[in-house]
């Protein structure tokens, strides 16, 4: 219970700046629409702010575009239907269907489609509009989107912190999964390797969140001048994202290969488990390196040790299962070297010659 409370409080602390940002921006959008532009009850202004900023980490520039277009489609379709056919249950259903269909045909994402439908529902269930109200609603949405983007440029999230918040637990879980795979090999345990495989498969949502965080951080650097000093670190994190994704996929294949070898009661040299533990060590050092610590050399050395030991295992057995496992360890080591900033050709060469150079 205590750890859960600490986790929730940590999440709240991380989100607190964005919550305050949303509150202030929504109030500013309302004041601009009412006091400066002179609109009466411009509810689309603060609604747009909340939708554009939100607590989700997707790119806010894209969200602003989809909110504006979605509002425009929803308002236009709903107003035309209500003016021509009045209000009622079937008119509401027609508005939703047409708004969502138009949004899909426009090539919009989920936000655009949903916002078109929501705007259509709001307009269709409000008192019958006139042409002035229709214009006001669209302008209110633009005001909200503009205020949201301005707020995001003035008080943006810290981009490196955003990516690290998603990357650090992912790498920690990946390292732990590799250790679990090695333990399963040591214990020749079907149950342990199945559990490790399930943990490897469970990393996919965290990978998607990491990639979204990288995209959001890159957008923040582009839109917010105060955050451009982080460009180098964000670029390094972005370059590491794809190799990390590939390594996680290779880890799943590695776990399946180990499961097959255990189930077939194949002889797996103990050095294979040692190689997988070296991969885990490299992953944990990679986290430190990407966080700014001078851990690049230790991460590289651990990855190359893993490749060298895996290659040496082929001298102790020639069965196909071990060959598959060795291939996946070497592939994962290559992915680790790529995530450290090494070129593809250099990474392949380093893995190929690792055993000879390290004398394993």
Quick tags:
elongated, mainly alpha, 360 residues, Methane Monooxygenase Hydroxylase, Chain G, domain 1, single chain, 15 helices
Can you walk through the features of this model?
By secondary structure, the protein is mostly helical. The chain folds into two domains: 16-154, no CATH class; 159-358, Up-down Bundle (Methane Monooxygenase Hydroxylase, Chain G, domain 1). 82% of the residues lie in helices and 0% in strands. It is built from 15 helices and no strands. The chain has helices spanning 2-36, 44-53, 60-85, 89-105, 110-125, 131-154, 159-187, 190-201, 204-223, 231-263, 270-290, 296-313, 320-339, 344-352, 354-358. α7 (159-187) runs antiparallel to α8, α7 packs parallel to α10 and α10 packs antiparallel against α13. The longest helix is centred in the first third of the chain and has 35 residues, at 2-36. The radius of gyration is 27 Å and the shape is elongated. The protein starts with a helix and ends with a helix.
Specify Rg, calculated over alpha carbons: 27 Å
Element-by-element helix/strand order: HHHHHHHHHHHHHHH
Level of helix content?
over 70%
The major pleated sheet works out as: none
Overall tally of domains? 2
Beta-strand content: under 5%
Which fold does the CATH topology of the largest domain refer to?
Methane Monooxygenase Hydroxylase, Chain G, domain 1
Can you tell me the overall shape? elongated
Low-confidence stretches: none
Quickly give the structural class: mainly alpha
- How many distinct helices? 15
- What is the level-2 CATH architecture name of the largest domain? Up-down Bundle
User: What's the mean pLDDT score?
Assistant: 85
Distance between the termini: 47 Å
CATH class of the largest domain: Mainly Alpha
How many strands? 0
């Amino acid at each position: 219970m205590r750890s859960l409370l600490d986790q929730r409080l940590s999440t709240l602390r991380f989100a607190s700046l964005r919550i305050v940002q949303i509150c202030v921006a929504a109030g500013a959008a309302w004041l601009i629409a009412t006091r400066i532009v002179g609109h009466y009850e411009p509810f689309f202004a603060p609604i747009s702010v909340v939708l554009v900023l939100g607590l989700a980490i997707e790119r806010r520039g894209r969200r602003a575009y989809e909110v504006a277009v979605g509002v425009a489609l929803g308002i236009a379709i709903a107003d035309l239907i209500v003016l021509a056919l009045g209000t009622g249950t079937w008119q509401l259903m027609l508005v939703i269907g047409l708004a969502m269909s138009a949004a899909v045909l426009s090539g919009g994402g989920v936000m655009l489609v949903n916002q078109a439908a929501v705007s259509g529902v709001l307009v269709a269930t409000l008192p019958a509009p006139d042409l002035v109200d229709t214009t006001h609603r669209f302008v209110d949405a633009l005001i909200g989107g503009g205020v949201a983007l301005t707020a995001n440029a003035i008080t943006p999230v810290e981009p490196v912190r955003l990516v690290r918040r998603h990357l650090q637990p992912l790498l920690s879980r990946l390292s732990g999964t590799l250790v679990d795979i090695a333990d399963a090999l040591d214990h020749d345990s079907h149950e342990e390797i199945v559990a490790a495989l399930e943990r490897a498969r469970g990393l996919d949502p965290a990978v998607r969140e990491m990639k979204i965080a990288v995209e959001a951080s890159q957008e923040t650097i582009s839109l917010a001048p105060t955050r451009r000093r982080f460009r180098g670190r964000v670029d390094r994190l972005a370059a590491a994202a794809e190799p990390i994704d590939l390594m996680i996929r290779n880890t799943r294949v590695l776990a399946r290969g180990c499961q097959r070898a255990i189930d077939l009661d194949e002889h797996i040299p103990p050095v294979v488990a040692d190689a997988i533990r070296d991969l885990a060590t490299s992953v944990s050092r990679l986290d430190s390196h990407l966080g700014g610590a001078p851990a690049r050399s230790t991460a590289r050395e651990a990855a190359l040790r893993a490749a060298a030991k895996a290659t040496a295992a082929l001298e102790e057995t020639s069965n196909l299962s071990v060959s598959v496992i060795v291939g996946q360890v070497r592939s994962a080591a290559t992915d680790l070297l790529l995530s450290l900033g090494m070129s593809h050709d250099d990474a392949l060469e380093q893995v190929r010659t690792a055993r000879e150079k390290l004398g394993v």
